[in-house]
Amino acid sequence: MEEPPNEWGKKAWEHLSLVRTHSPLIQCITNFVSMDLMANTLLSAGASPAMLYSAEELHHFTPRVSALTVNIGTLTPSWLPAMNTAAQLCSSLSIPWVLDPVAVSASPFRLNACLELVRLRPNVIRGNASEIIALSLASSTQPALNHDAAPKGVDSVHESMDAIEAAKLLAQTSGAVVAVSGATDIVTDGNRVFGAHNGVAMMQKITATGCSLTALIAAFVAVDKSHALDAAMSALAVFGVAGELGMKMAKGPASLRLHLIDALYGLDEAALLSHVNVTTLC
Ligand SMILES: Nc1ncnc2c1ncn2[C@@H]1O[C@H](COP(=O)(O)OP(=O)(O)O)[C@@H](O)[C@H]1O
Ligand SMILES: Cc1ncsc1CCOP(=O)(O)O
Ligand SMILES: [Mg+2]
């Protein structure tokens, strides 16, 4: 019997092709750990990264970008004005921007910074399961966070499938598309929920793969602004497939980092049609 066509695979290929053709300029206000991998991920996908974060140049630069990513990984008070100004500029100019709430439950300072950024209306919020659960809880009722249950650092202590309801709620309260990475990458607009069953567990052993994925989402949304959910899903699937193909060559995290970038650069339509595995979750 003939296989049904892989509609999400086709869509992922269309989005990746648009990124390669248009090479969207992506501003990344991000943590020091992720700058290198994030910029290289964007370049290998065909986008143009710019890791500019000085408040002095935002009014000149940010209005000319195709999308922005704001990542609070190594947050200090001095970074916040630039993050807020860039986010405000994007929201007022209808430039898509994506928030990565790294380690949002690590401190009240970080949580409050994130809540302020959520109020500036990101188009997409991407985090791991623990981050989305914590931000969703705080966005809806503002409870005191239970620090015993919350992770202490940047890595998730929850499974992505356990964050579906939290992701839907965060999408509804924020108006953003919400993406949760993990064994299954989940995307929701608060109503529809899709999951990409791609990627390999070893990707967790490379620092900043999550941050880089968030920037990739920004690049994909930049080329399909009116379909943020589809674009985010494509980015998650593409990154996951690159991880799977890279893993065939890798011996461990260090060589996976290298082969992941090479695989992303070399992805073709046949690879996406045969590997992208997206299903409707609810
Ligand atoms: N158990 C897993 N199996 C397959 N892929 C995974 C797994 N855990 C994470 N990934 C992939 O690793 C990448 C980074 O996700 P994650 O580790 O959740 O982000 P973060 O670094 O923000 O915690 C994503 O592409 C995700 O799909
Ligand atoms: C280790 C670390 N510490 C502060 S930011 C950061 C990188 C986190 O990257 P990711 O969220 O992609 O794992
Ligand atoms: Mg992260």
Give a brief outline of the structure.
By secondary structure, this protein is an alpha/beta fold. The chain contains 11 helices and 9 strands.
Description of the molecule:
It is a single chain. The protein is α/β, with parallel strands linked by helices and 282 residues long. It has one domain: 3-Layer(aba) Sandwich (UDP-N-acetylmuramoyl-L-alanine:D-glutamate ligase). It has 11 helices and 9 strands. A 9-stranded mixed β-sheet has the order 2-1-3-4-5-6-7-8-9, with helices on both faces. The mean pLDDT is 96. Adenosine-5'-diphosphate is lined by residues 128, 155-156, 181-183, 185, 199-201, 203-204, 209-210, 213, 239-240.
